[in-house]
Design brief:
single chain; 275 residues; alpha/beta; Rossmann fold; 8-stranded mixed β-sheet; 11 helices; 17% strand
């Protein structure tokens, strides 16, 4: 689905995956926001389930990622404003906001900026502050493909996870590595790796944002996460008065623990009765 999003530069085309079903804004809507060097495809299983069980679904490509036009945005605040503008352009008055890693900060800020627009808030693989080491940022500048390999290895808690999505034999490490490399190679005038990880590192308004959120919140964390340590999510959980769910996975929860993550999301987001 293509959406013309109003920005200061005029209308800019964005892409959103709707889970294989036409977007119906009369249904309860769920919005999925990916993390650094990602795109909508990380949400395929979850988006399809909710789209086929009574929800309107929008899994976005952030600006400069995947099929969305425009330069990558350089702050959580700017991304939150863009997300809210996209929802308005799509005719979505209220939605459950679900974000992974960098995307979790974006949905937090969006829910804080427009509390009436968020029916639920779900932060997956999150931490606050989401600090990035100087060594990683230097590596991203000097040798981004090698740095991607390091991040990819740290995002998975096992070499041979038993996948149920997309199916047996799927190489989880290789698929995630290919996605990150494709996102990095898609831009020639911007180092997307550096941009996205600086977005995470610079965000300082999380606790203040949490105080403005009015909807129920859930944190879904990987108990073996090496990228966003679970202990660094405690202050956010307290500020949001959120329910915290721990899954046996690393940072790449969508691919490493797809069924468990779907079950956790089903518990966090009420499913409407189907006619």
């Amino acid at each position: 689905m293509k959406i013309a999003v109003p920005t200061t530069a005029g209308l800019v085309e964005a892409y959103a995956y709707t889970g294989g079903q036409p977007l119906d804004t009369k249904r309860p809507c769920v919005v999925f926001v990916h993390g650094a060097l990602g795109d909508h495809s990380v949400w395929t299983l979850l988006a399809r389930w909710f789209a086929n069980h009574g929800h309107g679904v929008v899994a976005v490509d952030l600006p400069g990622h995947g099929r969305s036009a425009g330069a990558p945005l350089a702050s959580v605040e700017a991304l939150a404003d863009w997300l809210l503008a996209l929802l308005g352009a799509a005719g979505i008055e209220q939605a459950a906001l679900v974000g992974h890693s960098m995307g979790s900060l974006v949905v937090l800020e969006a829910a804080a900026r427009a509390p009436e627009r968020a029916s639920r808030l779900v932060m997956v693989g999150t931490a606050y502050p989401m600090a990035v080491s100087t060594a990683l940022l230097d590596g991203a500048r000097d040798d981004p493909l090698a740095a991607i390999d390091g991040v990819n290895a740290s995002s998975h808690s096992t070499i041979a996870a038993k996948p149920s999505h997309p199916g047996p034999g799927t190489w989880l490490h290789g698929a995630n590595r290919a996605l990150m490399r494709r996102m990095q190679d898609g831009l020639h005038d911007v180092n997307l790796f550096v941009n996205d990880f600086q977005v995470c590192d610079r965000y300082r308004g999380g606790i203040e944002a949490a105080a403005r959120v009015r909807c129920p919140a859930t944190l879904i964390l990987g108990e073996r996460d090496q990228m966003t340590l679970t202990k660094h999510a405690a202050a956010m959980a307290e500020a949001l008065r959120a329910r915290t769910i721990m899954l046996p996975a690393g940072h790449a929860l969508m691919s490493e623990a797809p069924d468990a993550l779907l079950a956790a999301l089903r518990g966090a987001l009420p499913t409407p009765a189907l006619a």
